Amino acid sequence: PNLLWSGDITYIPTDEGWLYLAAVLDLHSRQVVGWSMQPHMQTSLVKDALLMACWRRRPAKGLIFHSDRGSQYCSHEFQTTMKAWGISSSMSRKGNCWDNAPTESFWGHLKVACVLGQRFATREQARTAILNWMAFYNHSRLHSALGYLSPMQYEQRWLAAQRKNAA
User: Fold this and answer.
1) Cβ neighbours around 105 below 10 Å, total
2) pLDDT per residue over 68-83, tens digit each?
3) pTM to 2 decimal places
4) Is 13 helix (H, G, I), strand (E, B) or coil?
5) 4-14 vs 17-26, strand pairing mode
6) How far is CA 100 from CA 9, 66, 132, 167, in A?
7) How far apart are CA 39 and CA 60, in angstroms?
8) Sign of the CA dihedral running 125, 40, 77, 98
9) How far is CA 9 from CA 40, 92, 115, 132, 145, in A?
């Protein structure tokens, strides 16, 4: 945990306009460790998601954060925030979504399970649905890449094994 994170932005349509969602995934367990939802996609959207992840997880210096080359991630403000936390930046090759495949896969699951076929009258309705789905994703959704465990179960087992090996 906390060695390699990835992040990206997606958007959700509502009758009030777009709701933008930035998420940070820990690639060890595929757990969503930070997120932010705003009616805009300014730098503060991705910065807030990263800060949530940092405050929740308290990563050691040396963490690598991978993203695309979006202006929010390239911004001086975001890069300065990463440096302040001792995080190194990694960015996808230009125009290559495959470089951030785990996060793109997460977006696909979110859109199919939570957004497709839904009509959200308000951003708040969308926000509530997304938060509920992300809680399901972290705590209950089984992942073949994790041995059919949820991200939380996978991480808990990993931590228990580390404690056992240290004893």
Assistant:
1) 14
2) 999 999 999 999 999 9
3) 0.94
4) strand
5) antiparallel
6) 12, 7, 24, 37
7) 32
8) positive
9) 11, 14, 15, 18, 23
